[in-house]
Write a structure and sequence with these properties.
Distance between the termini: 58 Å
Number of helices: 5
Order of helices and strands: HEHHEHEH
Shape: elongated
Radius of gyration: 17 Å
Largest sheet: 3 strands, mixed
Strand order of the largest sheet: 1-2-3
Structural class: alpha+beta
Number of strands: 3
């Protein structure tokens, strides 16, 4: 296997752990294909390989992990830009129940 393939296959284990942690707070964690490539590229560039994947994931997700519990965030999307430290992961908010009811009342 190529180094990049080895990193990506090892990466799925760490990603699964983070997805589970977010699910505990009823939040979906999504990675764009581009973000997965960026994680693998960064691990190879830093010469950390699979060992460095956890630290890259931690660096990318630490701040948002403190935002999610008790919030209205229902999904976090990790992008290439967030892996590269250029922007935070995208946070999607769940609709509040009262807003849904009022929207339905208007459309009926």
């Amino acid at each position: 296997t190529l180094p990049n393939e080895a990193v990506v296959s090892t990466q799925s284990t760490g990603i699964a752990q983070y997805k589970y942690l977010f699910e505990l707070d009823e939040c979906k964690l999504t990675f764009t294909d581009d973000s997965l490539n960026a994680i693998a590229d960064l691990a190879i560039q830093k010469r950390t390989g699979a060992r460095g994947l956890r630290s890259i994931l931690e660096m990318t997700l630490t701040d948002v992990m403190f935002d999610v519990p008790g919030s209205d965030i229902c999904e976090v999307v990790v992008t290439r830009e967030s892996v590269e430290g250029k922007s935070p992961p995208i946070q999607k908010l769940r609709e509040k129940q009262s807003e849904v009811v009022s929207q339905q009342a208007v459309t009926v």
